[in-house]
Design a protein that fits this description.
Elements lengths: L3 E9 L4 E3 H5 L6 H7 L4 E3 L6 H16 L8 E5 L10 H9 L5 E5 L5 H14 L5 E9 L9 H4 L4 E10 L12 E4 L7 E4 L4 E4 L1 H22 L9 E4 L4 H10 L6 E2 L3 H4 L6 H11 L8 E8 L3 E8 L2
Parallel strand pairs: 4-5, 4-6, 11-12, 11-13
Antiparallel strand pairs: 1-7, 2-3, 6-7, 8-14, 9-10, 13-14
Helix pairs in contact: 3-4, 7-8
Bound molecules: oxa(dethia)-CoA.
The site of oxa(dethia)-CoA (UT7) has 22 residues, from helix 2, helix 6 and helix 7.
């Protein structure tokens, strides 16, 4: 076996959309500040849909797009930092909804880098022979963590989910999921906090911004090197969708000129662990990436944790 590959993607966003003007009616902000500082135009906010609802919808779409049934899945991994229930975990609840029988099912919380961590653990499990076919989901209800009177955070985040169907690659071909580069800066952990029983998110925005724009490009480059690919050969770059200025700064440092760069933050805001699979799934659905294209995924944020890998587009 030569590893694993993503065979299909799916995503789901709740129908309610909040525009910048909607938020300007709630707090002292305006469309121009939000667009120029962060790049966001609108975000989706869950009303009645639970975190499990969002994750299940995305997973169902990935299964349908991959032509697989729940019975064929033996591993479910959910990356999230907004699970309210401790037991059953989100992965088990999604598996129960989908009718997946006896899967390994666990949640991962590395906040905004969660999807790349989850994808790496699924790849490792498949390589080790502990699983054959996995659903890897990033899902968040960031709105549960928002103080709607705090303009520094309530304009930034959104809700949604994205999912990848990951399978063992048995054709002896090139691995579809490259080696992960992951790590963290725990001494800066308090730069993004979501704590307590009724948690409210707060962040030292400028400190995280500086870290992201100065420290991450070399790590993203390392993920390319470990996959044996020059960044100039990338066809796609799907970083965590936190801020358009961060996305463009990293893309520029990597020297990406021809690659399609995900900019879903504009329409979805920052959806933490959901942002990468959500943005990736939309690019594939719109036909902006083609099967086999090398795409760099790179997550970063709370922790401060980061993780990235080059994958082949389904
Ligand atoms: O995904 C998790 C990881 N997190 C990140 O990657 C976030 C990284 N950081 C950022 O994206 C940016 O730092 C933010 C978008 C969070 C903030 O942008 P900024 O350019 O760093 O703004 P700032 O926090 O330095 O605030 C500048 C000014 C302040 O006013 P004064 O003190 O200069 O008068 C804020 O009070 O902007 C004010 N401000 C706002 N004004 C209008 C803060 N929020 C708003 C707002 N509308 N919504």
């Amino acid at each position: 076996m030569s590893g694993s590959r993503i065979v299909a993607l799916g995503h789901y966003q709740p129908p309610k959309v909040l525009t910048n003007d909607d938020l300007a009616a709630l707090v002292d902000t305006d469309d121009e500040w939000i667009r120029t500082r962060v790049g966001i135009r609108s975000r989706h906010i869950a009303e009645d849909e639970s975190l499990v609802d969002l994750a299940t919808e995305a997973a169902q779409k990935a299964l349908a797009n991959g032509g697989r049934t729940p019975a064929e899945i033996d591993l479910v991994v959910v990356a999230t930092c907004t699970a309210i229930e401790r037991s059953p975990n989100t992965a088990a609840a999604v598996a129960a909804r989908l009718g997946i029988r006896s899967p390994a099912a666990y949640d991962i919380n590395t906040v905004c880098s969660g999807f790349s961590y989850a994808l790496a653990t699924a790849d490792h499990a498949i390589r080790a022979g502990s699983a054959r076919r996995a659903l890897v989901i990033g899902a968040e209800r960031m709105s549960d963590t928002l103080d709607w009177t705090d303009r520094s955070t309530c304009v930034i985040f959104g809700d949604g989910a994205g999912a990848a169907l990951v399978e063992a690659q048995e054709d002896g071909g090139e691995a579809g999921i490259g080696p992960v580069v992951w790590g963290s800066v725990p001494e800066k952990g308090d730069a993004v906090v979501i704590t307590g029983w009724d948690p409210v998110i707060s962040q030292q925005g400028q400190s995280v911004f500086r870290w992201a724009t100065t420290q991450l490009a070399p790590l993203a480059r390392e993920a390319c090197e470990r996959a044996g690919i020059d960044p100039a050969e990338l066809k796609g770059f799907v970083p965590h969708q936190a801020n358009l200025r961060i996305i463009d700064a990293i893309a520029n440092k990597l020297g990406l000129t021809d690659a399609v760069v995900a900019r879903d933050v504009v329409d979805s805001g920052n959806t933490s662990a959901a942002s990468i699979p959500l943005a990736f799934s939309k690019l594939v659905e719109r036909g902006e990436l083609s099967p086999g294209d090398p795409v760099l995924l790179f997550g970063f944020g709370g922790g401060l944790a980061y993780a990235g890998q080059v994958v082949r587009c389904p």
